[in-house]
Structures are given as C-alpha cells and as structure tokens.
Design goal:
This protein is α/β, with parallel strands linked by helices. It has four helices and eleven strands.
C-alpha cells in the first residue's frame, strides 16, 4: 500500500527532512506504509555527499543545506516538483542500481505524457532532453539540458529523498551552483520547452506512470 501526500504550500527543507527521517523510522519498525510525497520548497541549494565546494559559485544567494542523499549540488524552489520517495526495497528487491533505473524510467514515462523525450546519459545523473533549438555542442552533437534530478538515500533498505522535475522554476536560480557538477550542459523545464504544464498536470502524470512503471514491475 503506497500512500500519496501532496503539500500545497512551500515546505521548508529542514521540515521535510525531519518528516522523512521520522517516517522512514516508522517504516523500518513496521509502523507506517510506503509514501510518495509531492511538494515544493522555497529557493535553496542542497549539497549531496559528492558535492565539491567550488561548484557552489554564489554561496550567499540562497540558503545552503547539507544533505545525506547521493549526488552533488542541486537547486530546489517554487515551480519545481519535488518527489520524495519512501519505498521499502526489502519488498521491492535489494538492488540500488535497479531501483535508480526504475526511478529514471518513472521520470521518463511521466515526461512522455507531455510529448517530451527524456534520456539517460552515462556519467550524467538525472534525465536530459535534446534541444534542437540550441547550437550544436563543440563535438558536433545536439545540445542537451537537464530537466530532472535524482538523488536518494537508503536506511535499512528503505529509500528517502528522491526526484525533482522542473515544471516552471526560475531557471536563473540554478546559476548559483554548477548543477550536479556538470558545466557543459544547461537546465530546462517543461514550460521552458514551450509546454503550458502545471504542477497538478505533473502530479496526475506521476501517479499514472508510477502505476505502470514502478508497481507494474515484477
């Protein structure tokens, strides 16, 4: 039984982490169900376990929070759908790589609901889209922008933290960091791609894709 929780107001990052810590503890004790939490944060940066200080290029711009999730620096803020994923891998297979692949496929399937082709790239965490409207790269390939980030943590094989999908955030807010340590590619959103998509639209797509991609797995 997976519960869905949707917050309609901006959730402070510290409050979200405290909630996840408590809920995961209850799950490991057998006192709570699996939970997917959909929310938005006020503008902030988080530093994952692989973050490099030099990638925080404007440390005074927004609050910076140290996070125990995997990954490097990332931005959260209004217009971005954050998806905190508290799932029990004891019941879903104790395979971290396979779980991350499922999350990637879930995002890709969600984006496909809006006609967007998300892609995974070796050596680049997250989900990417090709930009035909931008100049070719220095290597002659298509320009690519990041549209979703993934960073999880496990405790006793229960996951928390999760996914962020750019719906309509202020993309300039990403300029205070090197997102995920990657300098040669940009960041985009569904609205930046010309799609008049709302958070509610994304929530509906996430729920439908979850049933197909995550719950539909053997």
């Amino acid at each position: 039984m997976v519960e869905w929780k949707i917050s309609d107001t901006l959730v402070p990052y510290e409050d979200a982490v405290a909630f996840m810590e408590d809920h995961v503890a209850k799950m490991t004790a057998g006192e709570a169900d699996e939970l997917i939490w959909l929310l938005e944060h006020p503008p902030l940066y988080t530093a994952g376990t692989s973050a490099k200080l030099e990638d925080l290029t404007d440390p005074d711009r927004f609050p910076v929070h140290t996070s125990k999730r995997g990954g490097q620096y990332t931005y959260h803020g209004p217009g971005q759908r954050v998806v905190y994923v508290m799932l029990d891998l004891n019941k879903r297979g104790r395979d971290v790589r396979a779980f991350v692949k499922i999350l990637e496929d879930w995002v890709i399937e969600t984006l496909a609901e809006f006609g967007v082709r998300g892609k995974i790239r070796d050596g680049r965490v997250g989900v990417w889209v090709e930009r035909d409207d931008k100049p070719l790269t220095s290597m002659g390939g298509k320009a690519e922008d990041k549209i979703a980030a993934i960073g999880i943590r496990l405790r006793k094989w229960v996951s928390f933290h999760g996914i962020s999908i750019n719906v309509d955030p202020d993309l300039d807010h990403f300029s205070g960091i090197v997102p995920c340590g990657i300098t040669e590619h940009g960041v985009t959103s569904l609205v930046d791609l010309g799609l008049p998509v709302t958070q509610t639209d994304v929530d509906v797509a996430l729920m439908a894709a979850f049933d197909r991609v995550v719950e539909g797995r053997p």
